[in-house]
Design a protein that fits this description.
Layout (H helix, E strand, L loop, with lengths): L53 E2 L2 E2 L26 E5 L6 H10 L5 E5 H5 L15 H23 L3 E6 L10 H7 L5 E5 L3 H9 L9 H11 L9 E2 L6 H17 L5
Parallel strand pairs: 3-5, 3-6, 4-5, 6-7
Antiparallel strand pairs: 1-2
Helix pairs in contact: 1-7, 3-4, 5-6
Length: 266
């Protein structure tokens, strides 16, 4: 303990820790340690001004409605391999649309993204409205939100030169929230193709699924029956009952080449 009024010893940090006016033990009374002189801090460089639609220093074009790709000359066969495309692959649960879409996207020679509606729906963790528990206002709202999110993502990819293929189970008897919704979210250049194998194949593939993507046989049969309405729609339809994934992707490419040359009316 130091006697009351005795000078405090210097701190362990040396002169920088002394208080002005503190008495050094080796100096005569009245000596005051000079305040340490610190060099002025350098001025901070101004923050770079970035455009509102940018990531880092890379300018991102704004995503707008997607127009139809220009058709090739009549003397040249359409080649989708070098064309930036927006594709919507439609089909019932168990048709294989997600597997085919991913396979097709992975093997294109140009940048291509696969956007699965089911994947985006399942981004909702707490409060996920599982249609297996019954279709209601909550599942409908989450479904529409996922579709709009997919549409925004597709437009941004396409604006930056990356093709997109989306997959969804769109019902032909609900055009306003089906194809009409996709056309609003992506643009008139979206190319829809229907993947519709036979009911037996769909039931077999659905049985191999797990989690909330596996539906009851009754539900699969009901969805497949509604999908039959696409046969009178004028859209291109692929029956992949006897095709493996590789063959189905090749057929899809041929169908898209014809769609570029002669876009379907929808």
């Amino acid at each position: 303990m130091h006697a009351m009024g005795a000078p405090l010893p210097p701190s362990h940090g040396g002169a920088a820790g002394w208080m002005p006016g503190a008495q050094h033990p080796d100096q005569a009374p009245g000596w005051v340690a000079p305040a340490p002189q610190r060099p002025p801090a350098p001025a901070a460089p101004p923050a770079p001004s970035l455009p509102p639609e940018s990531t880092g220093h890379v300018r991102l074009p704004p995503g707008g409605p997607v127009a139809l790709p220009a058709p090739p000359p009549a003397s040249v066969r359409a080649d989708t391999g070098s064309t930036t495309l927006a594709v919507l692959l439609i089909g019932p649960a168990g048709a294989g649309k997600t597997t085919v879409a991913r396979h097709w996207a992975q093997r294109r020679p140009v940048p291509t993204a696969h956007i699965s509606l089911d994947d985006v729906r399942e981004w909702v963790c707490s409060g996920f409205a599982d249609p297996q528990s019954g279709w209601n206002d909550h599942s409908e709202a989450q479904y529409r939100l996922a579709r709009r999110t997919c549409g925004f993502a597709a437009r941004n990819f396409l604006a930056n030169g990356i093709s997109c293929i989306l997959d969804d189970a769109v019902f032909p008897d609900r055009p306003v929230v089906g194809l009409g919704g996709w056309k609003r979210h992506v643009g008139p250049g979206l190319l829809p193709v229907v993947l519709l194998p036979g009911l037996e194949i769909v039931l077999e593939r659905n049985a191999a699924r797990s989690g909330n993507r596996r539906l009851s046989d009754e539900e699969v049969a009901r969805i497949h029956g509604r999908m039959a309405g696409w046969y009178g729609s004028g859209l291109p339809i692929i029956d992949n009952s006897a095709f493996d994934v590789e063959t189905t992707a090749q057929v899809l490419d041929d169908v898209l080449a014809r769609s570029i040359a002669s876009p379907p009316t929808w």
